[in-house]
Design brief:
The chain has 193 residues and is an alpha/beta fold. The chain is built from eight helices and five strands. Helices cover 44% and strands 17% of the residues. Helix 1 crosses helix 2 and helix 1 packs across helix 3. The chain is elongated and about 60 Å long. The mean pLDDT is 87.
């Protein structure tokens, strides 16, 4: 495959492909996945559990902190809430209200939306069982151009699985009003500092 064809399939320039091939330039994770996919491969990364406190990247933490800061005082926010006793998974953010509990999973990069949604739904189910009450799910996604394009192309899936719009979710968080269903929230992209 030529560099020009690879670049077209991956949505990057031929010059960029050349620099990556010769090692003078690196590619971010999403671009590396696009390049691998263009040549018929899946790129993977293996993670192994450790006994330490989970460390998230600063961009992810920043988005969670912004949500906590914006939440109405009627919400009682908790960060990195274990989904069940003995389970190493945690909900990124849980907002406990008088009439509703919201589980918010923050995704900076949409890589495999269906897998990310499924993982969030499984965490929510465990969390609901652990709490003994229904829990609403909000998938909070960084509003980058790339993520917005992916979500726009998945409108049918979003409407079925996450019927509440970003505007409705934001209003619920800001006012403390019940959301009443699962939803998606577009966040401003994390600032690089």
């Amino acid at each position: 495959m030529t560099q020009r064809r690879l670049a077209a399939l991956a949505g990057v320039s031929q010059a960029f492909v050349s620099m990556v091939e010769c090692g003078s330039r690196g590619a971010d994770w999403s671009t590396a996945c696009a390049l691998a996919s263009a040549v018929g491969h899946d790129l993977s990364l293996k993670l192994f559990p450790s006994d330490g406190v989970p460390i998230r990247d600063s961009g992810h933490v920043g988005l969670v902190q912004e949500l906590v800061a914006q939440a109405d005082r009627s919400w009682h926010p908790q960060v990195e809430v274990p989904v069940a006793a003995g389970d190493r998974r945690a909900a990124d953010l849980v907002l406990r209200g008088e009439r509703e509990v919201l589980h918010i999973e923050v995704e900076r990069i949409v890589v495999d939306f269906q897998a990310q949604l499924r993982a969030a739904q499984l965490k929510r189910a465990q969390l609901a069982g652990h709490l003994g009450k229904p829990v609403g799910l909000v998938l909070a996604v960084a509003g980058t151009r790339r993520n917005r394009t992916i979500l726009r192309n998945l409108r049918t899936v979003l409407d079925a699985a996450l019927p509440r719009t970003s505007v409705e979710v934001r209003r619920s968080i800001l006012t403390g009003s019940p959301l009443g269903a699962d939803g998606v929230l577009l966040l401003p992209p994390a600032r690089r500092g």
